[in-house]
User: Which sequence fits this backbone?
């Protein structure tokens, strides 16, 4: 098969999978994606990362399709954030903080968003900055630098989503880097 005729690869980051007392086995999640007509479906760790091939080129159409199917199958909302391998490469190439700050921090998270933040949301995100937490937005992602254990952070998921003005899902940058490397664009 030529590269030109290859079906595009996508990575879906799902919110609310295997948290809050809800458990979805990765085998069942793969099967649900296959039932949606996607091919070459894989999961990456048990936190709602699904890699698949789909002929639909626009991520927002894929997101709506997946969200509807998961709502019907699981009985609850699962916000979905789709990125291509090339977009993931851009996410990990972006350096939102000084290397020394990242090295000294406890963790760096990538927050996947539906759309780039507007001015009001960027200001609200900046208002969450503390000695413990720092934030940066870029494109359809925000980055959260946590300097202490998460238990010491004053930032909760609900507070963060209020500031962002919509749903988000977080992944440790290490996970995002592994996905970007494993599914690098050809």
Assistant:
């Amino acid at each position: 098969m030529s590269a030109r005729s290859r079906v595009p690869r996508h990575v879906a980051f799902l919110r609310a999978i295997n948290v809050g007392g809800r458990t979805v086995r990765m085998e069942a999640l793969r099967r649900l994606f296959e039932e949606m007509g996607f091919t070459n479906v894989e999961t990456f760790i048990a936190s709602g990362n699904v890699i698949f091939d789909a002929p639909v080129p626009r991520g927002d159409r894929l997101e709506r399709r997946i969200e509807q199917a998961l709502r019907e199958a699981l009985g609850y909302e699962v916000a979905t954030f789709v990125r291509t391998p090339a977009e993931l490469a851009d996410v990990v190439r972006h350096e939102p903080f000084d290397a020394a700050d990242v090295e000294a921090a406890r963790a760096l998270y990538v927050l996947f968003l539906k759309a780039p933040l507007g001015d009001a949301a960027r200001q609200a995100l900046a208002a969450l900055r503390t000695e413990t937490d720092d934030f940066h937005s870029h494109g359809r992602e925000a980055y959260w630098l946590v300097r202490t254990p998460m238990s010491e952070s004053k930032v909760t998921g609900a507070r963060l989503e209020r500031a962002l003005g919509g749903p988000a899902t977080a992944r440790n940058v290490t996970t995002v880097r592994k996905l970007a490397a494993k599914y690098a664009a050809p």
Observations:
- The chain has two domains: 3-83, 94-182.
